[in-house]
Design a protein that fits this description.
- There is one protein chain.
- The protein is globular.
- The two termini are 37 Å apart.
- By secondary structure, it is of the alpha+beta class.
- The protein has a five-stranded mixed sheet. A two-stranded antiparallel sheet has the order 1-2.
- The protein has 13 helices and seven strands.
């Protein structure tokens, strides 16, 4: 699967030949998080080329980690799912994420800001429980970004599905959140709270008082935010 073998019988070396090619662990993170379609996976790894994504998926399929199926609704759309061998990697991926949250220094992490990845993560981890049971639209505005990256919309439908739009969906907005990308990433990673950002004027919330009060809850946060960061 890799360009070169470690030529060691050790299970660690053999597993590394399957898992340690560039982008593979990050792709597995997306599969563990529940992404199945090619375009969903692309949104989770926006800086990975489609050609390389296809190559890594084929390699994981050949290794028995991923299986490819064809959906009937919509027709002719392929889905990628973890096999039992792939599902066994879930605690491994989670442990790597927890280690990174705990021991990787904050500044290097926050040098890799990516609005698309941040919003995609927020979309799939959003807790709809405190959100009103109607269509709710939340617009995030990152003033320092270019016009093409500045505005994002999270839409919670009455059936509790959550969509992410990068083009104005044309619905009335219930809550406007104006914030710089670094601050929003810090909130998402659990490095600061919504209340702290508001009090420091780093986060401006305008709209539904109900959504403002419950933002720390419905935002959901990164799955790794629960891990206290020990590296400065």
């Amino acid at each position: 699967m890799t360009n070169a073998s470690y030529k060691q019988f050790c299970p660690v070396a053999m597993a590394a030949e399957v898992l340690c090619t560039r982008w593979t662990v990050v792709l597995l993170r997306e599969l563990v998080a529940g992404s199945t379609r090619f375009n969903e996976l692309r949104r989770g790894v926006p800086r990975m080329s489609p050609a390389l994504l296809s190559k890594r998926l084929s390699e994981l399929e050949a290794a028995g980690v991923v299986e490819r199926t064809r959906l009937t609704d919509p027709p002719d759309v392929e889905a990628y799912r973890l096999t039992p061998a792939g599902q066994d990697l879930q605690p491994v991926i989670e442990a790597i994420g927890m280690w990174g949250q705990k021991w990787v220094e904050t500044e290097p992490s926050l040098e890799n800001l990516d609005p698309e990845l941040l919003m995609w993560d927020m979309r799939r981890n959003l807790d709809t429980t405190p959100v009103p049971t109607r269509r709710v639209v939340i617009e995030f505005i990152y003033p320092e970004l270019s016009e093409s990256q500045r505005k994002w919309w999270l839409i919670v439908e009455p059936d509790r599905t959550v969509d992410l739009c990068h083009i104005d969906p044309g619905f009335d907005v219930d809550l406007y959140a104006t914030v710089d990308l670094r601050t929003m990433t810090e909130i998402w990673m659990g490095l600061r709270s919504v209340t702290d950002a508001v009090e420091r004027d780093a986060l401006l919330l305008v709209g539904s008082s109900e959504l403002i009060r419950s933002m720390q809850t419905w935002l959901g946060l990164s799955p790794f935010a629960q891990q206290e960061k020990l590296a400065s």
